[in-house]
């Protein structure tokens, strides 16, 4: 019988993963500042769509790919989950379910990027505020679901048919 991971385990694992992602983003920022300085003598001007593409391809997509590989692999866990001795349980097709889970899990982050970037170029019009509002709503929904559900599953878990369990 598999035992569901506790709320505390999941939240601490999330915070550890957040620290790892933050370290990656800080490193990415430093590298890109150096590239812009050396190659362009400063930060070049980008269009709205170029900025959207850069944000997606350098921050969101690599994180989704890495975490999907880690959770879809034999250990079925991210760095935070490994430290807290929990893992993702799959009924079948771990690689596909891990990808679905991580796309859904990082959808609020991507929508937040889209809203802020769109807002920077269009004075935070209704579309920017819509993206930002949906992003915040989904993030809170995921947290609330982990806190109130007996099995501590959030929307991404339900969509992917996964459960986070103790090892």
Question: Any key phrases for this structure?
Answer:
167 residues, mainly alpha, 72% helix, RDD
Detailed description of the structure:
The protein is mostly helical and 167 residues long. It has one domain. It has 6 helices and 2 strands. The protein has helices at 7-40, 48-72, 79-83, 94-121, 126-148, 155-160; strands at 86-89, 163-166. Strands 1-2 form a two-stranded antiparallel ribbon. It is globular and about 60 Å long. The chain starts with 6 loop residues before the first helix and ends with a strand. The model has no long low-confidence stretch (mean pLDDT 97). Keywords: Membrane, Transmembrane, Transmembrane helix. This is RDD family protein. One of its GO terms (cellular component) is membrane. The chain crosses the membrane at residues 12-39, 51-70, 127-148. It is found in: Membrane.
Number of domains: 1
Helical content band: over 70%
- Determine Rg (CA atoms, Å): 18 Å
Category by helix and strand content: mainly alpha
3D shape: globular
Whole-number average pLDDT? 97
The biggest beta sheet reads: 2 strands, antiparallel
Count of individual beta strands: 2
List unreliable stretches of 5+ residues: none
Query: What is the N-to-C order of secondary-structure elements (H for helix, E for strand)?
Result: HHHEHHHE
Q: What distance lies between the first and last C-alpha atoms, to the nearest angstrom?
A: 11 Å
Strand order of the largest sheet: 1-2
GO cellular component, one term: membrane
Protein name: RDD family protein
Keywords: Membrane, Transmembrane, Transmembrane helix
Transmembrane segments: 12-39, 51-70, 127-148
């Amino acid at each position: 019988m598999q035992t569901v991971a506790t709320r505390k385990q999941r939240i601490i694992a999330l915070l550890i993963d957040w620290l790892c992602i933050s370290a990656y983003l800080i490193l990415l920022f430093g590298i890109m500042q150096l590239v812009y300085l050396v190659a362009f003598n400063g930060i070049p001007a980008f269009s709205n769509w170029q900025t959207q593409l850069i944000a997606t391809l350098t921050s969101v997509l690599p994180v989704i790919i890495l975490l999907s590989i880690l959770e879809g692999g034999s250990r079925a866990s991210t760095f935070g989950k490994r430290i807290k001795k929990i893992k993702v349980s799959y009924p079948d097709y771990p690689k596909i379910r891990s990808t679905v889970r991580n796309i859904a899990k990082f959808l609020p982050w991507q929508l937040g990027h889209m809203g802020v970037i769109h807002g920077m170029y269009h004075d935070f019009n209704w579309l920017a505020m819509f993206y930002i509002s949906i992003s915040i709503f989904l993030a809170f929904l995921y947290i609330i679901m982990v806190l109130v559900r007996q099995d501590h599953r959030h929307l991404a878990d339900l969509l992917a048919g996964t459960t986070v369990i103790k090892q």
